[in-house]
């Protein structure tokens, strides 16, 4: 049974990595159209529903039909990270225990420079934040 569990866990981790990549691409599309990325408070919902709070987008269109949830049925979290010259953000899954901020969170950090149109993963493959 132990092997089945590790194979299932690997499949879930792989799905989180794929979801993070898709969400990062959607956030890039949003920021090009809107003139800026969504705020942390606006979150991933800005990809589906037009933000009603400041900073409002210059132009808005729905980028996704719905925001996926992680394999453990928890919502993903988006947060802008402090930066002086680049848009830095993280995408986070609460992981198997479904509790944000615990040792099994799966976090991927990205940055996108103002001068370049390249979105790059800062950390690499999603992994727990411990």
UniProtKB/TrEMBL annotation:
InterPro entries: Pilin-like, T2SS_protein-GspG_C. Residues 34-56 are annotated as: Disordered. It comes from the Bacteria. Residues 7-105 form the Type II secretion system protein GspG C-terminal domain. This is Type II secretion system protein GspG. It comes from Luteolibacter flavescens.
């Amino acid at each position: 049974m132990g092997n089945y569990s590790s194979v299932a866990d690997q499949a879930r981790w792989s799905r989180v990595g794929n979801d993070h990549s898709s969400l990062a691409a959607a956030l890039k599309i949003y920021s090009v159209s809107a003139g800026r990325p969504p705020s942390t408070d606006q979150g991933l919902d800005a990809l589906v529903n037009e933000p009603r709070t400041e900073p409002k987008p210059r132009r808005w269109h729905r980028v996704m039909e719905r925001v996926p949830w992680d394999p453990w049925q928890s919502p993903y979290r988006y947060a802008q990270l402090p930066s002086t010259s680049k848009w830095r953000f993280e995408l986070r899954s609460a992981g198997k225990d479904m509790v944000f901020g615990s040792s099994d969170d799966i976090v991927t950090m990205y940055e996108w420079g103002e001068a370049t149109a390249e979105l790059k993963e800062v950390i690499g493959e999603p992994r727990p934040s411990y």
